[in-house]
């Protein structure tokens, strides 16, 4: 299972990413480590506004590419804000 996600930063910008372990990847983004995306080291992550599950890596890559290249499509996917720490906790308790 793969996940494609959109994070809203504290300055109101969006970051789109893909992973096969959502809790681990979001934790890396919050930790400000070198494993975090360089964009998120400059723009601190605040909220998760979209999560999509994909069955294959290829499907996830295709969705991530569309979200990054089609602004209108991305804005249509933006939903309610959930604290990034809340999402991490819920993902860890789910396992």
Structural description of this entry:
This protein has 95 residues and is an alpha+beta fold. The protein is built from five helices and four strands; from the N terminus they run ββααβααβα. The protein has a four-stranded antiparallel β-sheet with strand order 2-1-3-4. β1 and β2 (14-19) form a beta hairpin.
Query: Structural class of the secondary elements?
Result: alpha+beta
- Overall mean confidence score, pLDDT: 93
Count of DSSP-assigned helices: 5
The total count of strands amounts to: 4
The fraction of residues in strands falls at: 25-35%
CATH topology heading: GIY-YIG endonuclease
Q: Would you state the CATH class?
A: Alpha Beta
Shape field = globular
Biggest sheet features: 4 strands, antiparallel
CATH architecture classification name: 3-Layer(aba) Sandwich
Give the domain tally.
1
Distance, first to last CA: 13 Å
Give the strand order, joined by hyphens, for the main sheet: 2-1-3-4
What are the secondary-structure elements, in order, as H or E?
Answer: EEHHEHHEH
Low-confidence spans: pLDDT under 50, at least 5 residues? none
Q: Roughly how many Å is the radius of gyration?
A: 12 Å
Helix content: 40-55%
């Amino acid at each position: 299972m793969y996940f494609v996600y959109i994070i809203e930063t504290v300055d109101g910008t969006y970051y789109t990413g893909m992973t096969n372990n959502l809790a681990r990847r979001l934790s890396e983004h919050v930790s400000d480590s070198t494993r975090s995306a360089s964009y998120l080291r400059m723009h601190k992550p605040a909220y998760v506004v979209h999560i999509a599950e994909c069955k294959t890596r290829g499907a996830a890559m295709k969705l991530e590419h569309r979200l990054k290249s089609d602004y209108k499509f991305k804005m249509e996917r933006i939903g309610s804000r959930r604290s990034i720490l809340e999402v991490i906790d819920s993902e860890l308790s789910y396992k």
